[in-house]
# Entry
Amino acid sequence: MAVRRFDEMTWEEVQDLDRARTLAILPVGATEAHGPHLPLSTDVLISEAMARAGGDRLADAGYEVVLLPALAYSPAAFASGFAGTISLSEATSTALLVEVARGLAAHGIRRTIVANSHFDPANIRALYAAVDQCRQGGEAELIYPDLTRRPWASRLTDEFKSGACHAGQFEGSVVLAERPDLVREQIRAGLPPNPQSLSVAIRDGKQSFEEAGGDRAYFGIPAAATAEEGARTIASLGEILAEATLAHLGDG
# Structure
């Protein structure tokens, strides 16, 4: 089956989709600070790569897949102290997600899969709230594989699992694989490691990158990032998206 960009299709091509076998994938990211070396669009780039890789696998499993334009704005309170970060409220983000899913469902595309790589606690809460609202409404279905939870987190890199992961080796590697032209290489290569764990900081009640020990908006080991690791990570993210979706649909 095919994988197509939704925004490049005509309305008649959308109308002709096989509704019973069509899945929409929605990349969700943020516009926020990612250190002095990665672009504000880092999470969007990662989510789009995840969506493409997962879409290819779902198409191989016999589904028609449409890749939606990414949601590039989300709750991003942890990074709100840094220039360039645009943070939505949880309520706004939840409403956007629900209305996108319902808008698709109104034209017969009932199942939307969220490819999310933005792990601000407020964004994750907004995603779960959207899943619940769609479930309660009944007309649309949101499928959200949460990479921060088992079993998916265990499939990703050691840095990711450590929680010292924002604009570090994990994310930097994916951007090097996807858009190396956007990486400030001279800066990246000279950045010292920042081993402070965001996940620990969140559990301890910290509310910002600064409080968590990231005064330049990065955590982990940026200098260790490689395009080769990024390609492997993208493949893993695609596998997770496809496996979670097929399991949810009872087709895995």
